[in-house]
Design a protein that fits this description.
heterodimer; A: 115 residues; mainly alpha; 62% helix; 0% strand; B: mainly alpha; disordered N terminus
Chain lengths: 115, 206
């Protein structure tokens, strides 16, 4: 379950960062990370109950990377670079299954222990 | 007489042709620790590129590191990828930490997709990163000790990781030879084993 915890922490950071890297002339600098952070938090919570729900984090990750990369002339401001870096990290963690430390269900009946 | 319990698969098995388990926690933890050191070094360099720190410690090339990190080539990378190249490098080493530690102690057989993704991350990308560091040094005409240290770590990681990937590839080859059909092979690759894949796993027991 550790990948979901990491995702939740990154989601919380996105929400916090939306109030840290503000730009008065661009409201999306606040809105995009805020919405992405809420979506990541919700998905991380839902994924503890629903198998494969964590893959939705990949959609959010791609959106964040695309926004951070294309929104401003590069190299962009801190908000854009934060979005790219957090998006990349979410993409990494989002592919890890909930019970990654356990063998997949199809293999478990063939193991000589509960592991 | 062999009991049913003895016939089952051990979660911590040797992976032929090796006489140890390349997916054991100890094997993978040393890879993760080394990759973490490289990630930390790269993040330190990124901190300089972001302007968070005023200089870079370099015991051999003096201001060489700063010359490399502020070079036109490095700035061009920043414009292309939207992040300092050292930050991307730090993330790349972080992927090696995460992919090294994810999965069970028999993942070379149970989760081939994870081991192959780890292999793609460590071996081709590791070699490419070493080539880039060397080319950048030649193009800029200056060298950066922390960059060379991370490049050296990449090469050590290739050496440490190849055994698990080799075992996984060998297992997949056996599965394919036993049942050369895409569907069962595909499911086995994603951790949902076909009956023939389970047979192969039993046969490969050491």
């Amino acid at each position: 379950m550790w990948p979901r915890i990491v995702e939740a922490l990154l989601g919380a950071w996105l929400i916090v960062s939306s109030f840290v890297f503000t730009r008065p002339e661009a409201t999306d600098v606040t809105v995009v990370p805020l919405v992405a952070g809420v979506l990541v938090l919700l998905t991380a919570g839902l994924a503890t109950k629903m198998r494969l729900a964590h893959l939705f984090v990949l959609v959010v990750a791609v959106g964040l990377i695309a926004w951070g990369w294309a929104r401003f002339p590069r190299p962009g401001p801190a908000a854009a670079q934060n979005a790219i870096l957090v998006g990349l990290t979410l993409g990494l963690v989002g592919i890890i299954p909930n019970q990654a430390s356990q063998p997949p269900p199809g293999w478990r009946p063939h193991l000589d222990s509960g592991d | 007489m062999v009991t049913v319990e003895e016939q089952r698969l051990s979660p911590d098995a040797k992976a032929p042709p090796f006489h140890y388990n390349p997916s054991s926690i100890v094997q993978r933890a040393r890879i993760a620790m080394l990759a973490f050191v490289a990630a930390a070094i790269s993040f330190y360099l990124a901190a300089y590129q972001w302007g968070w720190i005023e200089g870079v410690w370099d015991p051999f090339f003096g201001a060489g590191s700063e010359t490399v990190l502020t070079s036109e080539e490095s700035e061009a990378m920043h414009r292309i990828i939207g992040l300092p190249d050292a930050a991307l490098g730090s993330w790349a080493y972080l992927t090696e930490v995460v992919l090294a530690m994810a999965g069970s102690t028999r993942r070379w057989q149970f989760r081939p997709w994870l081991v192959m993704l780890f292999g793609l991350d460590v071996i081709p990308l590791g070699i490419v990163s070493v080539v880039l560091v060397v080319l950048q040094g030649i193009a800029v005409g200056a060298w950066c000790t922390p960059c060379l240290v991370t490049a050296a770590i990449s090469l050590v990681l290739v050496f440490l990781a190849y055994d698990e990937i080799w075992s996984c590839a060998k297992y997949l080859r056996h599965v394919w030879k036993r049942q050369p059909e895409l569907g069962p092979f595909w499911r086995t690759f994603w951790g949902n084993p076909s009956p023939r894949a389970i047979d192969v796993a039993y046969e490969m027991r050491s």
